[in-house]
Amino acid sequence: MRERWESLRGWLLGAELRRPQLQETSFVHQRGGTMALPKKKLQGLVAATLTPMTETGEINFPIISQYVDYLVNEQGVKNVFVNGSTGEGLSLSVAERRQLAEEWVTKGKDKLDHVIIHVGALSLKESQSLAQHAAEIGADGIAVIAPFFFKSMNKDGLIAFLKEVATAAPKVPFYYYHIPALTGIKIRAEELLDGIQDQIPTFQGLKFSDVDLLDFGQCVDQNSHRQFALLFGVDEQLLSGLAMGATGAIGSTYNYLGKKTNQMLEAFERQDLPLALNYQFYIQRFMNYVIKLGLGVAQTKAIMTLVSGIQMGPPRLPLQRASEEFTLGAEAKLKSLESHCFP
To answer: Is residue 37 part of a domain?
Structure first.
């Protein structure tokens, strides 16, 4: 067994050496001007934020300040992805999405490293409007999901849509949100990345929310000479993503399991794979349990409220509130795991 670990460790070290180095420059030139890049590359953990709501289904904006402090101080997470799937972004009005983006940028100032605003929408005009607004308020990046009612059937159509959105915020780093299980878009991320910066000079990377490690691995391998942020989006499989060369991760569990996941990242960087696996298995045991109970946005809100003490409220219809049985079960499972895995 020891020989097996040493062999795997050696391979992982080689993978680490092959991984793209962090980008040190602050600006990149493009046709027609200069795009400001973040001072730091987007890497490490990025919390896909929930949208706190009142009992009547209105956004509970005053909670955001407390939410920011909790992520930074309790979970060690200093990057956020706002108005995505976890944040019920597509269930919010354009006005609500704008106001929520403003709140995160304002409350995260001097506390968060990156505030990435998801501006994807079924309407190109709405997506462009949200992108322009994100630029105006000083967001650190924008991300776009593929439209999923009228779908792009090929790479060219999808890139044409993404390009039009990116053009509305020509000085803001742009990220693609790849989540085929929800969009039904089967265009491989590897294919999409091929030559994308020729079309979208502001393109900086992607959130890869899929279990296809062949596709993700080729995103890493074929773009090693570029400084893309390749952010893995399947929390319970993150260690596999790290082994393939992920530069960071975006996910919902980092809201309440960020500290444990950061410890896994530290163990991985030290090449302590047994300890890293222990943390990953901890996360998997919890996720396996709650997925079997039925895990969605409503249940994630219940877990976040349970762990943080911050009232996330119910989800917006058509989603329905998590049951008391789910919350009690999740609480018992977390306590059991803590005592058995980390005595």
So the answer is: yes
